[in-house]
Amino acid sequence: MSIWKQLMFQDANSSIMENMIFFHDHALIVVIMILVFIIYMFIFLLFNKIYFKNLLNHQMIEFIWTVVPVIFLLFLALPSLKLLYLTDESKNPELTVKVIGHQWYWSYEFNDFNNLNFDSFMISKLDNIDQFRLLDVDNRLILPVNKQIRLNINSNDVIHSFTVPSLGIKVDAVPGRINQINLNMSRVGL
User: Fold this and answer.
1) Alpha carbons 169 and 183: distance in angstroms, whole number
2) Which of 72, 101, 102, 186 can bridge 160 by disulfide, Cβ–Cβ 3.0-4.6 Å?
3) Strand (E) or helix (H) holding 77
4) Which of 14, 6, 31 is nearest to 168 (CA)?
């Protein structure tokens, strides 16, 4: 759960979120390298007394300023593609939960357990004095730890967003379309 004045991500509760945090750090390092290079070139050109007035056609410089950005983009694209394929990896689920978004509440259906289903409404501001403001519900979805879980997410009315930041999942619930996501939680959490 996020807390006031928190600067970093929430603690990762799945391997996908750990990989997303690693990719964020990797991308930040690449951006800092580019920034340091640009600042170095700016300072070098600012205090340099050599001028290149006759530099009209130079194949090597054109090759360098084409290849260097491609290399930086590859440093960003390869880990991003790996993470993209990891998030879509589908294994045999031990539990399947159907999540249906409605206006102002969610419905959950466990078809593996004799059609167990329930609705989850947000608790009003007056009732949640000692709970998470505008984030708590009356019936929480409780899922097992270290089990492969499949969530089938759709909506009955409008587009909703099913999000659990500590698991690294955000799926849009679209009317008439079933979106699927697999997750495996590594620790107990709220």
Assistant:
1) 8
2) 101
3) helix 59-87
4) 14
Average pLDDT over residues 24-28: 93
Same domain, yes or no, for 112 and 138?
A: yes
The residue written with tokens 């951006």 in the block is 31
Report the C-alpha gap between 176 and 100 in whole angstroms.
11
**How far, CA to CA in Å, does 103 sit from each of 9, 67, 107, 172, 175?**
28, 50, 11, 14, 12
Q: Is the pTM above the cut of 0.85?
A: no
Does the pLDDT of residue 74 top 80, yes or no?
A: yes
Q: How far apart are CA 21 and CA 7, in angstroms?
A: 13
> Residue 118 is inside which H or E element, if any?
strand 116-121
Residues of the domain holding 46: 15-87
The separation between CA 93 and the C-alpha centre of its own chain, rounded to angstroms, equals 21
Burial of 173 (0-12, 13-18, 19+ CB in 10 A): buried
Confidence of residue 127 (pLDDT cuts 50, 70, 90): low
